[in-house]
Amino acid sequence: MSQHSKLSRFKWGWIVLGLILGIRAVAIYDKAFSVRLETMKTVSAEDAGEDSAVLVPSAALAATDKRAAATQARKIEALQGKMARLAPKGIYALVDTAQNRLWLKKGDKILYEARVSTGSRTTLIKPGDSPRKWVFETPRGAFKIQSKIKNPLWVKPDWAFVEEGKALPVALNERMEAGVLGDYALGFGKGYFIHGTLYTRMLGKNVTHGCIRMADSDLEFVYKNLPVGAPLYIF
Amino acid sequence: MVLLLIFIALMPMSSPTQAAEPRPQIPPPSSRETFLKQEMTLAKDDDVYVLVAPQSQTLFLKAKGLLLKELKVSSANLDKLKIAEPSSHRLSKREPDFPVFMRSVQPEDAADLPASSSSQRLEERFVTLEDMPLHYLFYFEDGLILSVHAEPDCDCGGHVKRVQALKNTVVDFLWDARALIRNRRLPDFSLRLSEEHARAFFWSSSEGTWLLIDVNQ
Above 70 in pLDDT, residue A40? Predict the structure, then answer.
């Protein structure tokens, strides 16, 4: 009886071992098969020129891949070339409104660096029957130097009077003020200028109404070296 | 026998499948092209745009394809950002972690003027770095929310640095909790920058600024 049960246990042991080995063999085969499948990539209808996906051997696929990669590389190169052509050719200016710095550059080379003051981002509100609002912000983006003026006069805008609590003048000459903007001014559109300042202690801070203020000596260098039409990037 | 069976069952698979191990993730060539095409569209405009390259932990401020400033990202969390291809998003609103401090300034001679003509000046007190908050939320038109954490500069070491790191973790957690309460969901992705760079990012971006995320770079 005991010999019979021993034999039976031995038999069951082999059966279980056989099952485990069988399962592992199936698993190994399955994995190997999936690897073989991976070498046969599915090529999309676009690449194959057919209206349905087809399976092609890996050698043929390699050639297709090479051609596709070369086309991609050409397209990428063309786009990079287009992007490079957007870069300024001559001298240009960069203004960092967070650091309040201005750089004159040519290519990657820095020609000059100066401290500036840029927009405060404050808001002025004129209450009343016809309320108005101004946000004193230096505009960001790509601009061009549009004008260069020696001994500029400041034509005081409406906000300057509102800020001082004064009534708006009717005559233009009441808006004119000399000596406030320094010796030079470079306009970059929409009434914004790079100009001098009486408040040199404030250079390096965000305190202006949107214009870019510079110290006299820095302004002179910028005025003499930055031509009309030169790109100006403000960020 | 039983031990032998267990060993066989648990034995790691060794087969000719070594080649089937996950291959290094190389971005498909088309994604680079997609990215450049998207950047080219943004570069045609005059506005400043931002490129985020989370894998190389860099953020670029650009205009007309020209690199204006490179900001270093200390860490980026994009777990919730489910994008596989480069994507661009237009900024609709940005918020510092506390409401902008608005100060009403009456002109000196305003008292003598009738009430209707007196002006009111509201100031955002962001004149120096110290005024700047440490956290920002950026909301995009497509619903994406970006959280930016500024890492306080610390010339310290050892225990002080560890305490500082712990403090930052707690502050970040509270910030995320506030963002969750405010928006009823956590930000989709977050970036940690130095104090100076976080400020620069906040200051240089505005409503309408495009953010181009290149997940493969």
Answer: no
